[in-house]
Amino acid sequence: MQLTDKKNVKALLLTATTTLLGTASVQAAETKADEWQFDTALMYYGETDRVTAVEAIIAGSKQFGNDEILSLKLTVDTLTGASANGAVAQNTPQTFTRPSGKGQYQIKAGETPLDDTFKDTRLQLTGQWTQPLTERDIWSIGGNLSKEYDYFSAAINSNIARDFNKKNTTVSAGVSFAFDQIDPEGGIPNAFHTMLIGDVDSSNFASDFDATRKESGDDKTTVDLLLGLTQVINRNMLVQLNYSYSASSGYMTDPFKVLSVVDQQGISQTYLYENRPDSRKKHAFFGQVKYHFDTTILDTSYRYMMDDWEIDSHTVDTKYIIPLANGHTIEPHFRFYTQTAAEFYKPFLLEGQVIPQFASADYRIGEMDAMTIGMKYGIPLSDGEHLSFRIAYYQQSPKSDGTQAVGQLNDLELYSKVDAIMAQISYSF
Amino acid sequence: MKIISNQKVWLLIGVLSLSACSSLGVEPWERDKLAKKEMLPNSAPIDAALDDHIYFSKEASSGGRSFGGGGCGCN
Amino acid sequence: MASPCEVLIDCNDKLLANNIASAIAKEAWRIEDKYSRYNIQSVCGQLNEKAGQSCAIDNETFLLLQFADQCFQISNGLFDITSGILRKIWHFDCSDNIPTQKEVSHLLPFIGWSKTSLTDATFTMLPNMEIDLGGIGKEYAVDKAILIAKKMSTYPTLINFGGDIAVTGPRNENQAWLIGVEHPSLKEKNNVMVKIKTGAIATSGDANRYLLKNGKRYGHVLNVKTGWSVEEPPNAITVAAPQCIQAGFLATLALLHGKDAELFLSDQDIKYWAIR
């Protein structure tokens, strides 16, 4: 039988092969590369007596014909609860004015002052486009928009990576530019201005409060550079090394944080709104080793970060993936973090002393250790779907940076620990 | 205030990449283990994003693995 | 099959993996012994030895020859398992030793699948003709091995017989198999990485087998109709198809299209990776 030139070779072959191999159903050879793949996650984060956060993520990625990849991610999170306002605990109850100027809150004797007005919802959209340029160069560009009630952030980034040595070595370089805008309710407090605490119901309180503040919001810009090296060591081992540089300039003060001014007996006299430098330059070195044992995988990373606020930090993070006989995986996780205090960190100010140029009592830029212990359980489902559960315990242990406590502060808890639980469910399909 | 010179950093990266080119690596057909998703440097990006967000808002350092988090008023 | 063969099973059960591997090895040796043209005792050797007579054949041989027949039809006669005797005059040793038109013309009468006759129990060809199942035998073995692997377990399995590859399905967690196609005759930079979740790939081509005379290059891919080298075929071509035997045939057929190899495959909407 002579067939025409233009015929469906695939279909004809299918018949021929079915006869030869007796295979009734013949699958398609193409991968499902051109379908969207989704990762979703819901996370709960809860601190004892403090902040509670719930965060949901849905991320989708799609691969196109020439290995281009489009990734989109939507994040929604809500934050409620109380956060340390920076003031020290006292033997007597304390009263603070809310950052909005609308109302006050009382703190019991002996307790770390927490501002319970935190409530915010954030919506974030992230997009990234990645495409090969040549056989060994990959280029990527992306952006990020984030909006919450009093905060807006926009960022763009671009990254290029080149493979060498049979793709055993990958060198990458990236740059990111971010613009952040803060516009808190009640305005931004003037640096080191005294918190107005009086009769909130009096007729001139609102105008007096406004006098302590700037009407408008403020902003900051951040430029990030990232250089990376990924190296395959052998069949079992992979190493990643990164150097990153980050330079921010603009408003970096926390408008919700104050410092207590205490006398020699340690008794609070006033609360001053904090003030931080308007420039910060960070260097970070990140190293990661992935090692594949016979069946398990060890993932360990270390990060050293230093900045010109004189914060040095070390982070060690280890995960160990253990496959079980039933195909599930169990993954213990451990993280240790330690940081030194910023040079302008002051747990409190002493009455009568000259006010420094910059000062903050925010424990998050003070000396601190933190530890995370967690566990993840993964269940592969049919057709590439995957379900996992993760739970972790996180503890922050703020420490004294050497500042000598005075009077009653010697007997009060100035550096209280923070305990938190994180729980997460992830589903990929 | 401490600022380390950028030159030193470039030098460090340079030396690392040079040493990496020697005899390290595998042949394409030896990538059986490396090709697993779990062996990607960032094998669980969603977990990493959630963790980064928490640590960004609770600690003074961020980033390192990738661009340094941010985009929220939580810090 | 004169090339490294491997079976990769994505599981932790060593015992079962061993059992599957030995069953597949056994099947591979059976097919090798039965159809190798180098072995005069093989079915193939016997059919060649008894060219000119009507030979009894078993069902498996009938099915294979029927498949070869369909390949011949589909390719409009380009793919022909009787073309092997051209090797008697073409020695691709990188010399300038090309045959004369007279030598070629002398052989052409003994080439041509249409000069054979096949029934479900017998096969007959003209005296001095030869068949060679090399073009489909290895791929057939891969597909048979896949059937065995699927019967013995549900674990994701990859069969690789000297670069002819098929998988039973995606790896655990629906991950694709990542295959580096490296052809021994090609430079390292030409390696291709192929990702497949189902189906098979096969590679054809050998850049080291050619003759060079008066600046003209004669590659090892021969047109059965003329007996001469096909002009400007790719150095190697890797084709994806649901089954290995299809991939192998398509890769060979593409090379026979010479400079139009890629055009032929893309016209037919067939996934391929070509190296020129």
UniProtKB/TrEMBL annotation, chain A:
Pfam families with a match to the protein in the record: DUF3570 (PF12094)
Give UniProt keywords alphabetically. Signal
The positions making up the signal sequence are: 1-28
Name listed for the protein in its UniProt record: DUF3570 domain-containing protein
Q: Which organism is it from?
A: Thalassotalea profundi
UniProtKB/TrEMBL annotation, chain B:
DUF4266 domain ranges (all copies): 26-75
Q: Which InterPro entries match?
A: DUF4266
- Under which name does UniProt file this protein? DUF4266 domain-containing protein
UniProtKB/TrEMBL annotation, chain C:
- Cofactor(s) needed for function: Mg(2+)
Q: Which family does it belong to?
A: Belongs to the ApbE family.
Q: What is the lineage of its organism?
A: Bacteria, Pseudomonadati, Pseudomonadota, Gammaproteobacteria, Alteromonadales
This protein's UniProt keywords: FAD, Flavoprotein, Magnesium, Metal-binding, Transferase
Q: What is this protein called?
A: FAD:protein FMN transferase
Q: Which reaction does it catalyse?
A: L-threonyl-[protein] + FAD = FMN-L-threonyl-[protein] + AMP + H(+)
Pfam families to which the protein is assigned, alphabetical: ApbE
InterPro entries to which the protein is assigned, alphabetical: ApbE (IPR024932), ApbE-like_sf (IPR003374)
Enzyme class, first EC level, given as a word: transferase
Alphabetically, the GO molecular function entries are: transferase activity
In its keyword annotation, does this UniProt entry include Metal-binding?
Answer: yes
Enzyme Commission designation: 2.7.1.180
In terms of superkingdom, the source organism counts as: Bacteria
